[in-house]
Fold this sequence. Notes:
The complex is a heterotrimer. Chain A is mostly helical. Chain A has helices at about 1-10, 30-35, 40-60, 70-90, 95, 100-110, 135-145, 145-150, 155-175, 180-185, 185-195, 205-210, 215-220, 250, 275-300, 300-310, 315-345, 355-360, 365-385, 385-390, 415-445, 445-474, and strands spanning about 10, 15, 20, 200-205, 220, 225, 260. Chain A contains 22 helices and 7 strands. The longest helix of chain A is centred in the last third of the chain and has 34 residues, at about 315-345. Chain A is globular and about 65 Å long. The two termini of chain A are about 45 Å apart. Chain B is α/β, with parallel strands linked by helices. Chain B has 2 domains: about 1-35; about 40-130, Immunoglobulin-like (Sandwich), CATH 2.60.40.420. In chain B, the strands form 3 sheets. Chain B has a 3-stranded mixed beta sheet, with no helix packed on it. In chain B, strands 2-8-7 form a 3-stranded mixed beta sheet, with no helix packed on it. The radius of gyration of chain B is 21 Å and the shape is elongated. In chain C, the strands form 3 sheets. In chain C, strands 1, 2, 3, 4, 5, 6, 7, 8, 9, 10, 11, 12, 13 and 14 form a 14-stranded mixed beta sheet that branches. Chain C has a 5-stranded mixed beta sheet with strand order 17-23-22-19-20. In chain C, about 20% of the residues lie in helices and about 30% in strands. Chain C folds into 2 domains: about 45-185 and about 190-285, Immunoglobulin-like (Sandwich); about 320-430, Sandwich (Immunoglobulin-like), CATH 2.60.40.420. The longest helix of chain C has 26 residues, at about 1-25. Chain C is built from 7 helices and 23 strands. At the A-C interface, α1, α3, α9, α15 and α16 of A face α1, α5, β22, β23 and α6 of C.
Amino acid sequence: MSEQNSKNQRLLGLFPLNWRFDLASLPGVRWLLKQRWFPMIVILINMFIFIVILMSGIMGGFSSGNYSFGIMFVWILWWVLLMMLLVPVLSRTWCMMCPLPSFGEWLQRLRIFGVNNKLGGLNLKWPRRLSNMWVMNFLFLGTTFFSGFFTVKPLVTFYLLGGIIVMGIVLSLIFEKRSFCLYVCPVSGFQGLYANMAMTEIRVKDPNICAKHKKKTCETGNKKGYGCPWLLEPHSLKRNTYCGMCLECFKTCPFDNMAFNIRPPGTDLLVNEKRGLDEAWKSFIMIAIAIMFYVAMMGPWGWIKDWVRGNTLTGWLKFISVHTAFALVIIPGIFFVFSFLSKLFSGSKEVRLKAVFVNLSYCLIPMGLASWIAFSFGFLLPNGSYILHILSDPFALGWDLFGTANIPWTPVATGWLVPLQFITLFAGYLVAADYGYKLSLQTYTDPAAAKRGFIPLLVLLTLVVIAFGWLYGG
Amino acid sequence: MSKTIIKTIISAVLVLACTIGPIVAALAYESSRTRDLTAEILARAPEKGNYSPRFVTVAFGQKVKLRVRNIDTVTHGFAIPALEVDAGEIKAGQYAVLEFTPEKPGKYDFYCTTWCSEFHLQMRGILEVTAR
Amino acid sequence: MNNKITVAIIIMLTLGVFTWLANYGWKNRYGSPETYEVIAPEVVTVGYYAEDLALKEADVFAQIWQKLPSAEIVLSHQIIEQPWPKGSTPLVKVQAFHNGKDIFFRMTWNDDQADTAVSIHAFVDGCAVAVPLDAEAPVRSIMMGFSSPVNIWQWQANKDMQHWQGKTGVPDLDVDFVYPFEEKEIFSVSIPEVKSAVTDLLAQRAGSLTQKETQAVQGRGIWRNGIWNVVFKRSLITNDSEQDCQFIGRKQMAAFAVWDGDQGDRGSRKSMSEWVNLQIEPAESKKSAENQLLDDNNITSVHKVSWIDKLRSLSLISTAYGETLENQSVQINKEPRLINLIAKRFEYTPNRISIRKGERVTIRMESLDVTHGFYLDGYGIDIKARPGLIGKATFVADKSGRFSFRCSETCGEFHPYMIGFIEVSPNSRFSFFVWSIGITFVVMLGLVLLKGKQEKGIETNVGTEQ
């Protein structure tokens, strides 16, 4: 019944969830996606930018972060783009053009553009027990412990990015294919989870063709491309979470059966595949970090800033313990209370509490994404003008490459900051409530029980959105 | 055969241009810009290392071109009162270029002119003009 | 096996390169590996000696000065306020003691020529001691404004001649302004009768130098063999604590300045020192250990915020702040409400300001450490406050809602995060937001509850449509 149900569902009662448009059906697009040089040329351009970022980091030392190319590009432009455009619209397109693991991948392949399916390195299988988001959860949370350093000190940004590159090379040599991207990269986890909200996806056009195709070249690779580097089965791909959009399956499919779809946002939230506590905790951590970042970076409280920037070691330790407890215990605890209430309200006996907890947690994804987008406005509008300066003077050496070096700090439309944040939060609330209802329907087989079980969830979402609104502009 | 060679060359050039390229280009551009500098002085608050270098030697009667680069996180200044040289405020991440010709040999103190730290008054150095 | 070795080599290489780069970056984190050892403030010990000096000529070279330790204090050009001096006196030696009633300072410095009168070649030599009225005042910028008023005792060679020897220069000229703290040069219209070689002055910041009515300081200077020796004398305690610094406790601060007349020094053209700590030994050197403990406690009790205050400070409710009288909301009238804002790295105090819509507000900002700014979102107001200079802006709060104000002058690593909130109440934007959420909540709840009974029907309908 639920299968039937999801087919006919509409987002906010308006957009049918099963609506798709294949971008690759446009002339030229499929040709582009099938070119061997295609994502690689974008990777190379990004590599150029990241080399400049790393250079500015190593040369910038502890100098002023707001005049550092690395800091501004990574934490104003890249992070904001990721949160506002790349992930919510284009799924994991960033992973498609990410230069960080490329050195490792080139070492595996010993090719840059060409195809060589005999991959080098030790090619070990990633341990099964770690084939989930837990490593990324802890690494990402651990990274945010240092947010008071790498968002202001160019050298620490170099350490962070350099560390990711080195880890990428080492793990690519030991483990097979993109194991590093799949299970370790700290940025990957939230992208994977929030990509479920994306408005694009890579899927097969016609499953029947794949069913008849015995060789499954999308998994094994052929002369035209590599077998899926992300260790997926592209022929039966259902969710965006672990799909890095490397476009190899477009090249390896002999039947041109892959599609690059535009879709209504968030349809993957309803796909019950590989759901688990790891992904639930990922969304708790993301919400906790959004709150912590706002309090520490855009709040008025100097003593919290002193904790976060490690003014004293004890202060910093207090910060990481409070932050960890908040992300790993308090927020999940609150959510647990409400999922318990949901089960209680529904009166359902056959559904396990764990299933309720995990399933319903997916409705926090739109909420979390909205809070992050709203938070990102708070970076972009006041500090976006630094980008113009650092483009002209990337190493703070007094260059003026594009004539924009002398543009002073100019906050843009900051009067609209809070209303924009409110609008974003409101949209997130609507979508979250809508998916919460659908997830409730999916969890409790009985529609009447689902409706009753949805009420505590709706109360929670309402409280969360008001709390965020109060924090951002109350 | 020749086609694969061309492809290899193109890809090698592309990869080099995108990895080592920016490093070489940046260093070359910077060295061309700073060729005629007598000295570069980094401005940092005393607790972060003070001016670097704190002792600059220049020859008497020759034009001196100094670049003072503020690589700190607060506003600094640079002035040699005895030579009536003043760069004014140099904000974080900015720089100042000073050109002057010292007319008398001797040792001249230079100072930071903007209150930058509780040790601000220690932010000073010496420009020595040698008689050759 | 071969494969494993290759992998191991590449991994080692990668790690090696990264470690090298990381180390290089760390060593050059402040641009170059060159470091500087910060010099702690010089300490001048003011010992207790039961000796009195009447400031006769011989007293300047009395026995006591031979046995007292002397602190060598580095001087620098005064370059904080214009005009600047051309030359400088690099060093001054300072000695001090007290006898339970009076305190004595002796400053000695090298000067190849004694300038005791204004001539075509020179102004007069001089020196000064500055002591803050509040011994506990936090160290702030010299010249740019102190956290407490400062007593300045200025000795000038021409006044010394006049007072002690009755000689005046021909013609009798004074230096056109007494001490540096004038923003522009002014003529002193009447030359006061010289009662002492030392002028006793009071200043709060640059441009506020005032000659005190009661002149409490005596001094005498002798130039001998290329060295100026100047002795200051004042009672430890006076009966005017509003205008005179007091040497009551065991700690005080002092700064020193020297004018070299033939270098053209006068007014703000001088050499000056950093703040120096005076350590005053008690008259009866046997002070009980208990008292000492108390003293130490007093020093270390830095302003601490209790965790309850921290929690309370988290509250965003507007009535919870505005502690000082000035920051409290007053009746809306024509006088703009004054809001005193103190900026230091990386927080404003108060960090949240509550005002009413339509109110006229003056923001008056002062910095406690380095240059800070104040940019108000939505209103576009930009203020800059250099340490010691007040930044000011007046505006009408005509937009309601919560706005952030942020630092607009790079002031340190956390500069982009230096933010405070202004809430112009009523916060109609937030109310609107909450109302929209509330209405949506009710609508959704209604839809879920009411539609519940017809669910089956709707589903079949949709099914037939497709």
